[in-house]
Amino acid sequence: MDKDQVRDALRRIVGKDNVLWKDVDLVVYSYDAGLAKGRADLVAFVENSDQVAQIVSLLYREGIRYVARGAGTNLTGGTVLMDGGVVIEFSRMNRILEIDIENERVVVEPGIYNLAVQNALAEKGYYYAPDPASQKACSMGGNFGENAGGPHCLKYGVTSNHVLGAEIVLPNGEKTWIGGKALDPPGPDLMGLFVGSEGTLGIVTKIVCRIMRSPERVITMLAIYNSVEAAGQTVSDIIAEGIIPATLEIMDNVVIRAVEDSMHAGYPLDAEAVLLIELDGLTNGMDEQAKRITEVCEKDGATSYRIAKDANERNSLWAGRRGAFGAVARVRPAYLVCDATVPRTQLPKALSEVKRISEKYRLPIGNVFHAGDGNLHPLIMFDDRDADELARVHKAGSEIMKVCIDLGGTISGEHGIGSQKLSEMPLVFKKGDIGMMRGIKKAIDPKGLCNPGKVIPKEEASP
What we know:
Number of strands: 20
Structural class: alpha+beta
Largest sheet: 7 strands, antiparallel
Mean pLDDT: 95
């Protein structure tokens, strides 16, 4: 089929008005929140899993590349087609299909926003633990593909710890279910294979998630520091005390100033770093835990600390943290976020290295990160109209990845590999490891059409 024939075939599946093909429309789907850019040939809006299966079957027969896309907020080029193909657009598959309180499960479609799920559950006294900072804009399908975390992943884990089942459209167009509402299904861990595969092994069309009762009580604290390294040390020391808070989040002065200019969250402008600490759970014993945490903060040099006095103050502090990525637009027009992870004890050293790299490449870098699990998010800020500066950004980002690996960490905590970090994969995985990944990909997607060019580096040609 040529492009016009494929367009007509897609229209027969989803309707004439649900296929985009003009250049002016396709530009919107040529990028995500990362730096990758590429042009799709067609975009098809789907409304149910049957349409997805029909489209994938068509593309499989015709040998046409495709990618599933929801909100397009991912940060590593994961939903950008680099060499043409079809975008299968999920924004209309955005329903909650079931809230099963008796079994503490929720079933959702992939296009629904994370926050929409949270709000619906909150009305019933429940919540879904993975809560990316972008939860107002990111979709559950994207969270599934990237194995997203969020501030609460320290205590409650990431997406793979809370997704129990899924309906998947395989690369040949076949629909299948893996897992379900029950715990611990027998056989190989297929759910573990698909969650975090970044849409390279199939397309999720329904997701079954574990939900939990809202905590009895929440205490939110803000500790102020004269150095980022001291704040990082406090993170390790709190956990060494045997206390596992719900969240431990750090922001440095660059980010603090951007946030305060943007939304006035109540962070002190003269602080070199702030540590946002949250406890949740049973009321009994929580005040004692908070007291022990303040003692650790004082020992590590916190200049002051405060406890949010009510829900409004708590929400304001969290609005600042969740809005940090957007706020840095006040510093420079663009940024690259380096999502790398190190052991908690290596946080001070990693932060010192990020500062050195900032000076080396003459680029402002702001730090805002999930400190509790060592998940760094250095924001390298730049002007993407300056080719020389952009080249330095890529070098700085790669060097930060290498530093984190050398400290015992890895190159992604939750944002995935996409197309952006392919060159760093051999720094983490041996040749045999990557070969096994290629083997799994080929077994499930023999034609290599499902979100090609992501996660797994291309096999080098033999000399």
